[in-house]
Amino acid sequence: MRLLLVHPSPLMYSEIFLRLEPLGLERVAAAARDAHHDVRVVDLQVLPRGELARELAGFRPEAVGISLNYLANVPEALGIAADVKRADPRCFVFLGGHSVSFIADDVLAQAEGTVDAIVKGEGETSVGPLLAAARDGGLDTVPGAVSSQGRGPAPKTLHSIDFPRPARDLTRHRRKYFIGELDPCASIEFSRGCPWDCSFCSAWTFYGRAYRKASPEAAVEELAGIREPNVFIVDDVAFIRPEHGDAIAAELERRRVRKRYYLETRSDVLLRNLEVFRRWARLGLEYMFLGVESIDAEGLDLYRKRVSPDENFRALEEARRLGITVAINLIVDPAWDAGQFQLIRDFATTVPEIVHLTVMTPYPGTEIWHTESRRLTTRDYRLFDIQHAVVPTTLPLEEFYRQLVLTQQVINRKFLGLRTAVGAARVLGANLARGQTNFARMLWKFNKVYNPARQYADHQRPVAHELPLPPPAPPGDRRELYVHTRPLKSRP
Ligand code: B12
Ligand code: SF4
Fold this sequence. Notes:
Layout: E1 2-7, H1 12-15, E2 18-19, H2 23-34, E3 38-43, H3 49-59, E4 63-67, H4 74-87, E5 92-96, H5 98-102, H6 104-110, E6 117-119, H7 127-136, E7 145-147, E8 150-151, E9 178-179, E10 186-188, E11 191-192, H8 203-206, E12 212-213, H9 216-224, E13 230-233, H10 242-255, E14 260-265, H11 267-272, H12 274-283, E15 285-293, H13 297-302, H14 309-322, E16 325-332, H15 338-350, E17 354-359, H16 367-372, H17 397-415, H18 418-433, H19 438-449, H20 452-457
Parallel strand pairs: 1-3, 1-4, 4-5, 5-6, 10-13, 13-14, 14-15, 15-16, 16-17
Antiparallel strand pairs: 2-9, 6-7, 7-8, 11-12
Helix pairs in contact: 9-10, 10-12, 15-17
The site of iron/sulfur cluster has 11 residues, from helix 8.
């Protein structure tokens, strides 16, 4: 079958700091190719919508799969599905990805016949059987599939994440993928899933708390084949198992693979596995994203982070000693008043790290979705991007955004402060010399995108499709939140 896979466009607010390759879609593409389909990918993060129309007309796909990892992309994905069906009513249209897995039945209903199936869970295992069923019938027998014919059995968990390797050759315009000054930047997955259970997060419920690791040999073989000099490691929590991080490092050293890396981890994991991070710093680990979430113990308890403020601060000190630049994430509680925003500004200007702010948002698949969704002030999918407040704010909403943006501006000014500006200018010069302009654009764009009036106005837009609400009572058994229901055994 001719299969076209589509990634929706980036959200304005994430485009500033990074734009990364659609790794999940590339893996689905590879699995479909293994099943002998003719596959193309259109990534609307880097291509204009007109390019999709051109592919539809030129390639004439018999099936179109759209990635829906992000709730805020639901209206766009439904629009694409409708366009595809209008162009060719016989084309088989399906959706898959993280967010849509939790609300598959509702999104299928909202699509009003323009979507033939929604695939829950990992796409590598389902895409082959799905396309076979699209041709021969039997959609209700495909694991994880939801369609007008009914629901298939539970999604199948991929036995090993070593294969299929992402079909990176299908994503053209790879020079557009970057994160901060790592420009251009590719992505790789060393492990999948998270064994913790933070209340605001759906990473653990998607994989049923299972945690799988790529074999060090396969991971390094893949890494060595990546053209880009920079790599973002997409693992939710990198190097949970020190021996895994060490084994990959040893293989990289043996094969003399040298790149620059950005990863995401937890403070307790960093402190516990300091030697691994030291070894990786020698190998090129330059940036790290730490989910600090809250600067006080009360907030950390609320989010069930299972880390203390002391551990967070010690982790920051250790990262500084290792020479790794840290980006800290803090969750903004909509209940904050002006004083609490001021506290965060004071904190952000005293630590040398970059601070990122994300607004506490109850997503389907999280525990807070069940406790907070009754309080939602909006159900506009587009506002569920962790940059908007979707539950009541203590401050009037306009003032909340004013405080939020003021805090982001203070942080940004610090980030671009004199000392950093000298460094940034050096990096900028080097990147521009190589024809890489993503980092430069990021520096220009900030003030245009972060604008309180614009964020407030986003709430006034007409809403075509609304996020569904969860069932009335929270599940007694947390396993009811899982997408993959038979977790593998491994634990950290
Ligand atoms: C890397 C990453 C990113 C990258 C995205 C790169 C890209 N374009 O794909 C960047 C850094 C840009 C990013 C940004 C954001 N992210 Co993000 N991100 C992740 C992260 C850590 C890993 C994703 C990944 O690559 N996984 C590895 C691949 C192999 O898995 P996958 O993408 O899930 O794909 C599999 C399945 O989902 C499925 N699948 C995927 N697509 C399709 C398509 C079809 C047709 C089918 C059948 C199946 C299928 O099959 C794949 C293979 O198994 C996840 C957490 C997680 N564990 O998933 C969060 C996560 C997905 N992100 C999240 C959020 C909140 C965001 C932001 C909104 C944050 C922000 N405001 O800046 C933005 C929005 C992005 C946008 N729309 O523009 C949330 C999702 C929340 C939600 N419910 O909407 C997550 C779950 C993190 C979390 N724990 O809360 N993110
Ligand atoms: S926030 Fe991080 S540690 Fe917590 S469950 Fe999500 S991925 Fe795991």
